[in-house]
Design goal:
The complex is a heterotrimer of chains A (448), B (305) and C (341).
Chain A: H1 17-22, H2 39-53, H3 63-74, E1 85-88, H4 95-100, E2 104-107, H5 113-120, H6 129-139, E3 152-156, H7 160-171, E4 176-179, H8 188-209, H9 215-238, H10 248-257, H11 263-282, E5 294-299, H12 308-315, E6 319-324, H13 329-332, H14 343-355, H15 367-379, E7 384-390, H16 394-409, E8 414-419, H17 426-447
Parallel strand pairs in A: 1-2, 1-3, 3-4, 5-6, 5-7, 7-8
Helix pairs in contact in A: 2-3, 5-6, 6-7, 8-14, 9-11, 12-17, 15-16
Chain B: E1 3-9, E2 13-20, E3 25-32, H1 37-51, E4 59-65, E5 77-78, H2 81-93, E6 101-105, E7 110-115, E8 121-126, H3 135-145, H4 152-158, H5 171-183, H6 188-210, E9 216-219, H7 226-236, E10 240-241, H8 249-290, H9 292-295
Parallel strand pairs in B: 1-4, 4-5, 6-9, 9-10
Antiparallel strand pairs in B: 1-2, 2-3, 6-7, 7-8
Helix pairs in contact in B: 2-8, 3-5, 4-6, 6-7
Chain C: H1 20-27, H2 31-48, H3 78-85, H4 89-93, H5 96-114, H6 117-122, H7 124-138, H8 148-154, H9 157-173, H10 184-188, H11 190-198, H12 212-234, H13 244-252, E1 258-262, H14 272-276, H15 283-286, H16 303-306, E2 314-318, E3 321-325, H17 328-340
Antiparallel strand pairs in C: 1-2, 2-3
The chains are: A alpha/beta (448), B alpha/beta (305), C mainly alpha (341).
Chain lengths: 448, 305, 341
């Protein structure tokens, strides 16, 4: 790493033997901080404490995830990958292909304010926190989560900022593959274009791992993600319970862990959690008040440690019952259907799964996103929607209007919040969120 | 007589309002927030008690609102200032024939609230994290112009030439712009009306986002400034309703809510009591019924009547 | 992996008419295998049923090929229809119109029971195409697809064939064309050569040199059959795009009992249904407004329902009652089977 991008590197001067021996107090060379004391570890620790301690009676099985985040984010432990490590910057990179050819994917999207600040040193001030933090992390020698040396970064050409990030990541010394994603998803031409992109992506991975994509290894990879998707759907099902038995802050943490955790360990942990939730459901254990407003979260993705908004909602007595974000629902909800189980057919089916149901605002139209929100509100018996747009994320900012209009026509209240990773608007946001939840309660009371 | 209190702990001022059993405004008190807001809030509350010669016990329910609401542990409950403002404006607006849109300019934020015919908030927007167009902005301007905050309104109407354009919306940059205008020999009236217009533009933009009702209610400390109210009217193209006590609308709303919460809770308690009594009566009846088969022929008094 | 799906909250299910267990069993069925066997059953019935003396009449809405004289248990309606239309115009306007109308009516009664399900489950020619597809998959070869543009053009051919199938016999009756053109569609229909052959009747496997008209028609028939065999190997349900019976069905499908219904609100447009659709019908995934989602090319094979992961987004109904619907559990079960196989 070179040039302007090494800002995250802690500067450690060589200790000189004489000065150290002469006066231990004065001018002692600065030791690198132990990991747990670094800014990024403290930031993570603080949020984690809120997630764990601000709520009573968290599910026991959540301990796996609390512990995982503490190990990785607060103590800087590494999760060893199987084979080469391939970073992805968006959910559109088909991870089944990565697994099939013997590599491990890690999602690089970052939620840390610390890295946001580092990214701000070389990115335009109006760029979105997520992109700044991701690039900020990639410049650091000591990134959390510890992604290690990346053998390849896959950068789907989604929004403009991520597109332009491609060259910047290359300048940092990463090998970057631009996975070409179309801007329109409805047309058959874009579907075919995308299927071709995905095929060339498979070719690129083959170059990294040296393994061929076969019917057998692709099927095995599909089976692994299928297990994850199934576990996710079951978990998602429990969030329909009213009164709620599971909180959104935990749900976000679980899916955030999917970014970097070992796939099989993650599946096991979620299955354990599901077993526990089943018992909680049968025993009518409540995680929130009976009349707690039920919120569907949409817009820019909450990524640990930036769980600011979901936490504010749940600390104010609401429950995030579902979401329409790429850090959770959009990442794990959709499943692949295959007709013939031949390599080509499976690859095309995978490509379809990563394009067609995607409700990312980078596409020209957003009918699917609006329909999805209406359906989620119905399915989860939600009372309102909180729409987060990261300042600088133009596509989410622009879509706000049409989403608000659709929801208004359907009598669903929405709170639009423009924010970023910085903690300084928490006071103001908590007022807005509380007012929103109060207005929902008043509305419900009126209806009765 | 029972009273109910609303305590609005804002960024610049603490407002206390008492309402009586009928929900009518009984007394109010405003004091600067200062740095020790908890102590000051408590003092403000006690000052009003003294002023009205009331005992603490007479205030049956206290609801806190405003930025400091959660840290004021003496309150029975807390509510966001948006909800409280909606209720307060709804109640106070009845005198003007009912209001549907509220513009509130506070010490460090400004908001527009849309309420339904019951005073319930249906939509609201707030300025983003920036003091532009808030009371703070007026504060800074008054200081730069070396006049009192309360004089701003008078100066507004003294502008001979048209209002000047203030281009900076940022409080910090506007400061230097104002100094520059003064140095160029512009009159205070023109500058002030320019500032008012700039605030009005921002605020009306917020109000339009939530939708304008026939009558727009304008409250918050800066609503005392007649010049600003006039600028907002110009910008809106319609009249705004400014209540007699614009600063205390939110605290008033909290007090109204305190009263209804209290009534609801005591109704619940009464209902519980009635239920308990009913249960007791039922148990009693069951007991007397159970003696039926054994009692045979009229030995029991129950059969006598 | 034990099925933790049993633990799903029960309130997601709609209130159902059948007991829940039975419903789940139906919706979770290994659909492809079920259909495979059902198709075999109908194949045997329609190709060899005649040997048992079964007679279902002359108005069947599927390719129970009339040229399979001993094996057929009834006759595909297209054959008698073309013959009837070729009657002299005068007769056609007189008494014969009754024959045609009553024939059409019986055809219609048969048809409305299964709608285009006749194509997806019953038609022996369709079944043959599915077998050819299975053979290709076994060999590990890939299928082809039409581009969207050619799909839209090709989709018209079946209507053209339907029109010709009516106009040419009328022309024969009016004396414009030679009787040698016979039942023109049957002459070029691959079923005429394939179905009797499968019943060990090889009479149709010849070129008829008795007249120029017959030479042309039997040659065309040989060509289409060759195309059929080659086409079905590379393209799923190759012939169904061009089938005039399919066009005929579609025109009459409004009052049918058996229906394919889509609840657009529940659809995430994930395209899973489109991915598995043999007929490349894009609307099945993309149209979220129209609940009557059976398009003209559709064969109601219900593969889309089996491949839909959204609870109740797609369903097959009979006279308004749901008989098979998409479920999350069913989908997962079927796909898990795929990855494990």
């Amino acid at each position: 790493m070179n040039g302007p991008f090494n800002s995250g590197k802690p500067v450690v001067p060589e200790p000189s033997p004489q000065s150290a021996g002469a006066s231990p107090r004065a001018r002692k060379p600065k030791e690198p901080l132990p990991f747990g004391k670094t800014k990024q570890a403290r930031e993570a620790e603080k949020v984690l404490n809120h997630i764990v301690d601000d709520f009573d009676d968290n599910p026991k099985a959540m301990d796996y995830f609390y512990d995982l985040f503490r190990r990785v984010y607060c103590r800087g432990e590494t999760i060893a990958p199987d084979g080469p490590l391939i970073g992805t910057t968006c959910i559109q990179a088909p991870e089944e292909l990565i697994y099939a050819m013997g590599a491990t994917p890690v999602r690089l999207c970052n939620g840390s304010y610390h890295y946001d600040q580092i990214g701000a040193e070389f990115m335009p001030s109006k760029s979105c926190s997520l992109v700044k933090a991701t690039l900020g992390m990639l410049t650091s020698d000591d990134p959390v989560p510890r992604v290690g040396k990346l053998d390849l970064v896959v950068n789907p050409t989604t929004c403009d900022q991520k597109k332009k990030a491609s060259a910047m990541m290359q300048d940092m010394g990463h090998a970057v593959f631009d996975l070409e994603l179309p801007n329109v998803k409805e047309s058959e031409a874009s579907r075919v274009y995308w299927q071709r992109s995905v095929r060339s992506f498979a070719e690129e991975i083959r170059k990294v791992t040296g393994k061929k994509l076969t019917r057998k290894n692709l099927k095995a990879a599909l089976a692994r993600t299928q297990r994850a998707e199934k576990a996710f759907r079951v978990l998602d099902g429990f969030r329909k319970a009213s009164p709620s038995i599971f909180l959104g802050k935990d749900a976000f943490l679980v899916v955030n862990a999917y970014f970097f955790d070992n796939l099989d360990n993650w599946c096991e942990a979620v299955e354990r959690l599901n077993d526990e939730l089943k018992i909680r459901y049968d025993n009518a254990v409540r995680a929130a008040q009976k009349k707690a407003p039920r919120i569907v979260f949409t817009g820019s993705p909450p990524i640990f440690p930036n769980l600011k908004l979901p936490l504010l909602i749940e600390r104010a007595g609401g429950v995030v019952v579902s979401d329409e974000t790429c850090s959770a629902n959009r990442m794990l909800y959709d499943m692949t259907a295959v007709d013939e189980w031949l390599v080509n057919d499976m690859v095309d089916s995978l490509a379809d799964k990563y394009l067609k149901p995607c409700t990312c605002p980078i596409f020209t139209k957003n009918d699917d996103r609006r329909r999805r929100l209406l359906e989620l509100v119905k399915k989860f018996e939600a009372d309102g929607i909180v729409y987060q747009a990261f300042a600088g994320c133009q596509v989410y900012e622009m879509e706000q209007r049409s989403v608000a209009k659709t929801l208004d026509e359907n009598g669903i209240p929405m709170l639009y919040v423009e924010t970023d990773y910085s903690p300084d608007d928490e006071g103001q946001l908590s007022t807005r969120i509380e007012a929103f939840l109060e207005s929902i309660k008043t509305r419900k009371r009126m209806r009765q | 007589m029972n009273y109910f209190a609303g305590l609005d702990i804002g960024s610049t001022a603490i407002k206390v309002v008492f309402v009586d059993e009928n929900g009518r405004l009984a007394g109010e008190h405003v004091t600067p927030t200062g740095s020790l807001f908890y102590k000051n809030a408590k003092e403000a509350f006690e000052t009003l008690l003294t002023k009205m010669a009331l005992q603490r016990e007479q205030v049956r329910y206290l609801i806190a609102t405003g930025y400091g609401r959660k840290l004021f542990k003496d309150a029975d409950d807390s509510i966001s200032e948006i909800t409280a403002n909606g209720i307060g404006a709804h109640e106070a607006g009845k005198a003007f024939g009912g209001v549907g849109t509220i513009i509130n300019i506070g010490g460090q934020d400004s908001k527009a609230i849309r309420i339904d015919s019951h005073g319930g908030v249906t939509n609201f927007v707030m300025n983003d994290k920036c003091a532009a167009g808030t009371g703070r902005f007026l504060d800074v301007a008054a200081r730069n112009l070396e006049i009192g905050l309360e004089e701003l309104g008078d100066y507004h109407f003294k502008a001979v030439a048209g209002p000047l354009d203030i281009n900076s919306t940022c409080t910090v940059f506007a400061e230097s712009e104002i100094i520059g205008l003064l140095a160029n020999g512009h009159g205070k009236g023109e500058i002030i009306s320019g500032i008012h217009n700039s605030i009005a533009r921002r605020t009306v933009r917020l109000a339009k986002k939530v939708g304008l009702d026939e009558r727009v209610y304008f409250d918050g400390g800066p609503a005392l400034n007649k010049g600003l109210a006039a600028a907002i009217e110009d910008e809106l193209g319609r009249e705004v309703v400014v209540p007699e006590h614009p600063q205390t609308t939110t605290a008033f709303g909290a007090a109204i809510l305190a009263r209804s919460e209290f009534l609801a809770e005591s109704a619940e308690r009464r209902a519980e009591k009635v239920e308990l009594q009913a249960q007791a009566a039922l148990a009693e009846a069951a007991k007397s019924a159970s003696c039926g088969p054994q009692c045979g022929s009229g030995a029991c008094g129950a059969h006598a009547g | 992996m034990k099925s933790s799906l049993d633990g799903m909250a029960p309130n997601w299910r709609q209130r159902l008419t059948l007991p829940r267990g039975m419903r789940d069993a139906i919706n979770g069925v290994d659909f492809n295998r079920f259909r495979f066997w059902l198709q075999i059953f109908f194949f045997v019935l329609l190709v060899y049923g005649g040997f048992t003396g079964l007679n279902l009449g002359n108005n069947l809405p599927t390719f129970s090929c009339g040229y399979n004289q001993n094996g057929r248990p009834g006759v595909c309606y297209l054959l008698p229809l073309q013959h009837q239309l070729a009657m002299p115009t005068k007769a056609l306007l007189g008494y014969a119109s009754l024959t045609i109308l009553s024939g059409l009516f019986i055809f219609f009664l048969w048809f409305i029971v299964l709608n285009k399900g006749w194509c997806g489950f019953v038609c022996p020619l369709g079944t043959v195409q599915d077998w050819i597809t299975d053979l290709r998959v076994k060999m590990g070869a890939r299928f082809t697809r039409y581009s969207q543009a050619s799909f839209e053009t090709l989709s018209w051919i079946k209507y053209v064939l339907l029109a010709l199938m009516i106009v040419i016999p009328l022309g024969i009756g009016a004396g414009y064309f030679s009787h040698d053109l016979g039942a023109p569609y049957c002459m070029i229909c691959p079923a005429r050569l394939i179905i009797p052959t499968l019943a060990l009747n090889f009479d149709q496997l010849v070129l008829d040199f008795s007249s120029p008209g017959k030479i042309v028609m039997t040659t065309l028939g040989a060509i289409t059959t060759g195309l059929f065999l080659a086409g079905s190997f590379v393209k799923k349900r190759f012939w169904c795009f061009f089938c005039p019976m399919s066009a005929f069905h579609y025109l009459l499908s409004k009052p049918a009992f058996f229906r394919l219904i889509k609840d657009g609100d529940k659809c995430t447009r994930c395209g899973d249904c489109y991915t598995v659709c043999d007929l490349q019908i894009k609307e099945i995934a993309d149209d979220v407004k129209n609940p009557q989602i059976m398009m003209d090319d559709c064969i109601v094979c219900l593969k889309c329902v089996a491949a839909c992961p959204e609870q109740g987004a797609l369903k097959a109904t009979f006279a308004g009652r749901t008989v098979f619907e998409s479920t999350e559990e069913g989908f997962i079960k079927r796909m898990e089977k795929g990855t494990r196989a």
